[in-house]
């Protein structure tokens, strides 16, 4: 099986470099690692020295960069693994992913279940993550079916990416682009959670999008996916436009801080609330347009 890895990154050169190091340490190395960045400042030049790594420049945006990477996978590619630029992998991560697809030929895509997802609110060090991943583990398959994907680490059979790509109308941070792609792929075959491909999603803050713009996308994007594309169900819509903003409000006013103190996250939630409100106001005046975030200056 020819295994391709695609990573989109912007403004996080050191974080990206550490993730590439984690890929370089794999017992089953990727046949190609495609890194898509937006400028020369987005990556450390030494990653080009690692075997199999190719760096490309593209227009910014999570969906745009990932699609750019898909287009540049080898014609021999059988499987594309999409990784965020801030994950630490167990050394047998890719081996387990490959074996999973060998054993279950009817599965067309998986979301890997992180051992830890944004631990310590994005403050866990790489060294601590490596220590956690090196601890003896009793691996279980932990397979369950799902109807979408979670973007921090997901793998898709390359042939199905000839029919479905990331929606480039979801610009910037491309909030919910993974859910949208997964819902469309689910119409073509089985999608699973797989908990045996151990990794830690560090959730390192910074370098992506302003928190106010994220708040804007938190409202605009799910409404677009539900009303315009039909790739979101009513339960996920309610979660997105009710529960998420409610969490932002509670965090902004310090309620959530009573249970887990995180001053920086509380500040971020205050900005997200402003973005939530601005998105609702825009929709009432102009309708649903996810690309409007490009002209959102706040």
UniProtKB/TrEMBL annotation:
Database matches in Pfam families: Glycos_transf_2 (PF00535)
Classification via Gene3D superfamilies: Spore Coat Polysaccharide Biosynthesis Protein SpsA, Chain A
Domain Glycosyltransferase 2-like, first and last residues per copy: 4-160
Superkingdom of origin: Bacteria
PANTHER family according to UniProt: GLYCOSYLTRANSFERASE, SLR2126 PROTEIN
Name of the protein this chain belongs to: Glycosyltransferase 2-like domain-containing protein
